[in-house]
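Supplementary Methods, section 5.1.

A reviewer requested that the exact input to the structure prediction be made available. We therefore reproduce it here, unchanged from the version used in the analyses.
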Amino acid sequence: MASKKTPEINGSSMADIAFIALIFFLMVTTMDKEEGLRRRLPPLPAEDQKVEDQKVNRRNIIQVKINASDRLFAGNEPMDVSQLKDKIKEFLTNPNNDPNLPEKEDVEIEGIGTVKKSKGIISLQNDRGTTYSKYIAVQNELIKAINEIRDDFSMQHYGRVFNRLTTEQQDLVRKAVPQNISEAEPKDVKKR
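The structure derived from this sequence is encoded token-by-token as follows.
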């Protein structure tokens, strides 16, 4: 009997096809990219500038802390992230002129006139064990509160929300409603 040979499949082109498929998937696949937080750092001081100690009235600062267990404290009282925005809005606007909330100063803003500007500062501090998602959630709520105050101010003076204003108008609103967030170096805050 004659031995029967099995025909071989020519595999030389399979490597080429796999390579082309790989290139195709690399070209059409989108990758998520992290953008981070948009923050503009203050400019570096001039070399000849003197360092001045600024005294800040205690009532003008609200401390927002996140501990290692992701518990949130604002003004030494525990709260949920969903409550933070309203707490910050009340703190910064001080609608009832509460003596325990921030002072307001009269500021002359070109094109708007004299406005009451809050001296409020948000001091954010987190623990080294704080999760990134909790940190971002708190940051988002702080920015949301400031954006809502800016929207209210914009509607009152221009009849439009902040994002619909011209660049010059937005700069004026930023002067009236500044974003004063001081972020302290992470440390161990789980004792509170």
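The longest strand covers residues 61-66. These observations are discussed further in the main text.
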